[in-house]
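Dear support,

I submitted the protein below through the web form. The confirmation email said the job was done, but the results page showed an empty box. After a refresh the structure appeared. I'm attaching both so you can tell me whether what I see now is the final result or a partial one.
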Amino acid sequence: MEPRPDHGETSYHGSGQLAVCKALITGVDSGIGRAVAIAFARGGANVAINYHPDEESDAQEVVKLIVTAGRKAITLPADIRSQAACEEVVGKAFEQLGGLDLLVNNAAYQQSKANILKITDEQFDRTFKTNVYHVFRFSKAAIPHLPPGASIINTVSVNSYDPGEELIDYAATKAAILNLTKGMAKQLAKKGIRVNAVALGPVWTPLQVAGG
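What the results page shows now:
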C-alpha cells in the first residue's frame, strides 16, 4: 500500500496495563487487527493471532513485533467461515495461552458494489459468514473460558448506523454485530464479562485499495 499504513509500529509504546493478560484477536495480518495486536503486546499481553492462511507473510511481520515487545505470539491461521474453524481457533488459543482474558472479533470481508443487483448471493453469504457468524461463534466458544473481568471487543463501523451506499451487505453485517454486542453485554454482565464495540470511521487498510 502507498502510503504504508501506520499501525503504531514506531509510535505506540504501551504502559503495561495489560500485563499477564491473554488475548485472542481475529483479522490480525493488517489494518485494525494488526494495530490492536501491537498495542496489546506493548501493553503487556500475550497474543494469539488469527488470520486467513493466504496472509501468512503479513502475519509473520506482526509476530516479530509481538516478540520484540517481549510477549508470546501464537499463530492460528484459519478461514473462519465455518463453525469448526472458529471453535478450533478458540480452543487452541485457550490451550496455548494457558487461559483467555480478551477476545477481539475484528476480521471482516468487504466488496464495494455501486448497484445492489451486482451483489451476488455468494458475496452476501461470504460477507455475513466472515463478519457476523465469526463474532457469534468465537464468542460462544470463548465464553466458557472467560473469567470475571474478561472482555469481548467487537469491531463495528460508522456503517453500522450510516450505511455507505456502495457497502450495503457489509454495512448490514456491522449493524448486526452492533446489535449482538448490546445483547451480549446485557447477558454477560451477570458473569462479570464486559462486551463492547468500537465503531470506526474510515481507516486506511487493504479493504480500501482492493475493494475488499
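Response: this is the final, complete result; the empty box was a page-load delay. The two ends are 14 Å apart (CA to CA).
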